Amino acid sequence: MPMKMGWRWYGEGNDPVTLSDIKQIPGVTSIVWALHNKMPGEIWEIDEIQKVADQIHAYGFDMDVVESVNVHDDIKIGLPTRDQYIENYKQCIRNLSKFGVKVICYNFMPIFDWTRTDLFHPVGDGSTALFYEKDKIKGDYKSMAEYIMSFTEKYNMTFPGWEPERMAKLDELFKAYAPVTKEKLWENLKYFLEALMPTCRECDIKMAIHMDDPPWDIFGLPRLLVDAESIDRFLSMVDDEYNCLTLCSGSLNANPNNNVAEIALKPVHPLF
């Protein structure tokens, strides 16, 4: 399969980069999109998807990759209510399939999605980059969350995994995740994927898990997809062609012990 160039877009009114801007970039054929106003566990309705599809198709782009259909905390924790949220996720898959979506990029990180300590770190040539300094945050998860949320409020943006409604309940979330060991999180991920695979095959949509970012435990919360060994465990745990990877070199490379080129070249990995 030839490689396609896609561009992550955070949506009209939520992203300072417009579809018109992206159209100027040679080679971009696909928009990696999402419904950023949806909370984890909510069903992405047909009319909501159609609205974004009309925007994307108006510029001649494909919309075959979605990032992120976020996973509800009850699924990650393994609560009895998870089955209803899994059913909601299945309906999202069915609805997305009507618009040509072939890949859902998601993650299974507890509480926080990507984690950073600086959103505008100078890199020497006048540009800035996202930055993570491990010693800067240590155990103070509230300070880190407040910093990132202040940015989203200032620029009126919504980031997946940093929903204000969830971030307002950090203490409750940490308490709920307290019994969830790394092994338990693996079990809950397997339960989730095994439940989804029949729907994925029916709709021809692949689930592509994103690497944990950063690739190590933070604030006492377990992280799973962190290295070659955990990737192998993940793929063998649910051995299905629709169980795939979003092989994020940026996330894996944050740990200097990871040889990303070697990981990417392993022939057994079903990458989307």
Report on this structure.
- The chain has 12 helices and 8 strands.
- The strands form 2 sheets. A 6-stranded parallel beta sheet has the order 1-2-3-4-7-8, covered by helices on one side. It has a two-stranded antiparallel sheet with strand order 5-6.
- The chain is globular.
- It has helices spanning 19-23, 46-57, 73-77, 82-97, 134-137, 141-154, 164-167, 170-177, 182-203, 228-237, 249-253, 260-265; strands at 5-8, 28-33, 62-67, 103-106, 118-122, 128-131, 206-210, 243-246.
- With 272 residues, the protein is of the alpha/beta class.
Secondary structure: elements and pairs:
Layout (H helix, E strand, L loop, with lengths): L4 E4 L10 H5 L4 E6 L12 H12 L4 E6 L5 H5 L4 H16 L5 E4 L11 E5 L5 E4 L2 H4 L3 H14 L9 H4 L2 H8 L4 H22 L2 E5 L17 H10 L5 E4 L2 H5 L6 H6 L7
Parallel strand pairs: 1-2, 2-3, 3-4, 4-7, 7-8
Antiparallel strand pairs: 5-6
Key descriptive features of the protein:
globular; 272 residues; 41% helix; alpha/beta; 8 strands
